[in-house]
Amino acid sequence: MARTRAVSFSKIGGPEVLEYIDIELPPPGIGEVQIKHAAIGLNFIDIYFRTGIYKAPHLPFVTGKEAAGTVTAVGPGVEEFKVGDRVAYAGSDGAYSVERNIETKHLVKVPEEIPLETAASMMLKGMTAEYLLNRTYKVGPGKMILFHAAAGGVGLIAGQWAKALGATVIGTAGSDSKVRLALEHGYDHVINYNTENFAERVREITGGAGVHVVYDSIGRDTFPQSLDCLGRFGMFVSFGQSSGPIENFTLAMLAQRGSLFATRPTLFTYVATREELTNCANALFDVVLSNKVRININQTYPLSEVGRAHMDLESRKTTGTTLLIPE
User: Its Gene Ontology molecular function terms (predicted)?
Assistant: First the structure.
């Protein structure tokens, strides 16, 4: 049996629990292919699993949800993929590895015009932006949106995409440099939440009307102020909790602020079927190939230094997308 290297943890905790270890790699099983990763995406969901906010299905556990690479072996019953295919995925645990076996239901083929490193950096974040803007709340001309963490991986993609769809795009960021970065990526207005009250500024920008939708991946630190940014019948979309979970959220808050709507979506619900996955990925590939959305790979780390990458992401030192590169 072959062997490969992967990052695993046997207990929840800080970045120090991540171990770069040798693991066995059997031949791919029925409905699986074996792939060699070119690059692996770093996401906050990886931290949620490491810290126990999301429960790992078993321990030890190889985390990571997003990567791209090349098919090196094909298991029994696989017809859609062949050795040499360039593929990417978002949603299958086990991405923190040099090589792996994966069920083909998670995979999409990457267009030749898109580098594998770009694909690895955009699948989870880009498909998240796709479902948020096109399906959770339909963004288009005449819509005003607020997107928190505008200089983050999802935020930089969403700002450009929402602008291409015709919306007025407001963002928040935590430093002047991040404000400037977001303004270069589609945002009409960016609020530094460390120096300004973002709810008050949103009301000023919108002439008191509020926005149609707030996209919030921050959680505790931006609640309930996010609700205060919405106009009547507005939608609060909570799709992450980088600052911690929202607490003391009551339905009365929605009534008091104008019959608001609230939802807690996940990418994996929106791409649960093969058709949904391919449609979502193809929409992302199309908008990137059209140059309406450019993908920024702003940080790279060797896979063996994943602990340092986690620390930088948690401390909000990173912008755009971050890659782990297998040695």
Answer: mRNA 3'-UTR AU-rich region binding; NADPH binding; quinone reductase (NADPH) activity; zinc ion binding
